[in-house]
Amino acid sequence: MPINFPQLLQDSWNFIRNRRQFSLTAMGLLLAIQLLATFVLSNFMVSDSAVSLLPSFLIGIGNIFISVLLVLNINDINAGTFQSFFQNTSKALAKLLPAISLNIIMVLPLSFGMSSILFGNISGSGASIFSLPLSAIGIFVFVRLNLAIYVFLVENYRVGQAVKFMWQLAKGKMAALFAYTLLANLLPILITALVGRLGDNVAIMVLSFVISAFLSLFTTILGFRFYQTIRPKTVN
């Protein structure tokens, strides 16, 4: 069936408005992770290369943890069992490593293609004949498995089960999944990058962090709504 993305976007915005305390807490955590990694950890007495990589790495791990916690909480809200924002903290910690591995499975094929193109550009030899096919395969895998994290958390599947279930669920839905990927993954990156180009000062950086936190929350809710839309009525 056709996916009504405008309605999904409106539903996601309504969720944020109706759950203001929940949304502010989530944004506060996402913002704190970015500020902590950028302003504190980057001042540690480590090498320049570590300084540049450590904050990004920690932001990535922190964002995955908060995303897992958010999905678990949103699922509880949907089921009417939500009580407090941190009620699923221990469960989120237990699922963090599997969630990271699931993200690696999604991104790894795409990284091969991107790395091949980047290496060709750096070396001056240009992209190899394998770069575009690898990138195309990577994009296809990423799009097809883009909702696997929701399958993993909502259905309480193992990583392998979630991948298999999402791969089968995506049959006949690739156009909708591609549109979702553009909205949830590409558009936030473009918006944050545009904000960052407004200037190189603390105020712009903090504004970029706030917008990034909001978009992370919004797209997590959007992903949950989208998965609920395409999810089979009965799941084994």
TrEMBL record:
UniProt keyword list: Membrane, Transmembrane, Transmembrane helix
Keyword rRNA processing: no
Residues passing through the membrane, by range: 21-41, 53-75, 96-118, 130-153, 174-196, 202-224
UniProt keyword annotation of Signal present: no
Name of the protein this chain belongs to: Intracellular septation protein A
